[in-house]
Amino acid sequence: MRALNVLPSLGRFVNKKRVVVSFFYYSALVVYAFFVLIPILYMLFSSFKPESEIFSKSFGLPKNWTLGNYERLFSRSHYGLYFFNSILSALVSLFLIAVFSSTAAYVLAKYKFKLSGYVYAYFLIGLIFPLQLGTIVLLKMMLSIGAYDSLIALILVNVARGIPLGIFILTDFIRMIPEELSNAARIDGASESGIFVRIILPLIRPALASVLLVNLIPVWNDFWFPLVFIKSDFIKTIPLATALLFGQFETNYGFVVTVLAVASLPVMVFYLIASKSFVKSITGGALKG
C-alpha cells in the first residue's frame, strides 16, 4: 500500500522535471534563433533604407522605405550577370558532386575489392587538408588545361572539394541499406546500374540532399578561388564582385547590404526546400545507428 501511495508523487516529480527540461530547451532555441535572425533582419531592413539612415537608425525599421538600392543593383551594374555566374557555377558543381559522390560511395559500400579500404581512406584525407594549400599547383594545372579565367576552373575546384564529404556521408548511408533488396532485384534481372538508379538512389535521397546542402554554402560563398582563377569582369561571381565594392576611401553600404540580401536568397530558398530531407537523413541515421 505504501508503494502505491508513492507512485502518484513520483509521476508528478517526473512531469515537473520534463517541464523544466523543456523550458530550458526551448529557451536555448529561442536565444539561438534570436542571434541567427538579427543579422539577417538587419541586412534586409538596411537594404530598404537610404545610406544615411543605415548608420543613424541602424537597428530600427526603415523610416523612409526605398527601392533605390535594388533599382541600382539591377539597372546600373553587372550584378545580374554576376548572379548568373554564381548560380551556374553552383548548380553544375552540386550536380557533379552528387553524381560522382553517389556512384563512388555505392561502389565503396557494396563492392569489396583489394584496395577499397585504401581508396576510401584516400578520399577521407581530402577532408583533413584544405584545398587552399594546393593553390599554386591548381593554378598551374588550370593554366595548362586552358581553364584559367573561366567558370570551368571554379567548377572543377568545387567538385574536388565536395566529393570527399559526399563520399563520407553517402558511404555509411548506403552500407545501412539491406543487401537483400539488391539481391532481390538481381533475381528479377536488374543490372547493377539499374539497381543503383532504381533502388539505391531513391533510398539515399535524404542523405544526398544533406550532401548538397552542406556543400552549397562553401561553393556559393567561396571568395579565394574566384580571386585566384578569375580575371575577366564578366566571369566574376557574387563574393568576388561584392568584395570590390569596398573602396579605399568610400564605400556605399546601402548597395553592399542590398547585394548581400539578394545573394542570401538562393541559399535560404534551397535550405527551405531541402531542410525536410536534411532532418530526415539525420534522424534516420541516428535511429539506424
From TrEMBL:
Phylogenetic classification of the source organism: Bacteria, Pseudomonadati, Spirochaetota, Spirochaetia, Winmispirales
Similarity field: Belongs to the binding-protein-dependent transport system permease family.
CDD domains: TM_PBP2 (cd06261)
Record-linked PROSITE patterns: ABC_TM1
Keywords assigned: Cell membrane, Membrane, Transmembrane, Transmembrane helix, Transport
Residue span(s) of domain ABC transmembrane type-1: 83-274
Protein name: sn-glycerol-3-phosphate transport system permease protein UgpE
Gene3D superfamilies given in the database record: MetI-like (1.10.3720.10)
Subcellular location: Cell membrane
Top-rank lineage group of the source organism: Bacteria
Transmembrane segments: 20-45, 82-107, 119-139, 151-174, 195-217, 253-274
Membrane topology: Multi-pass membrane protein
InterPro entries in the cross-refs: MetI-like, MetI-like_sf
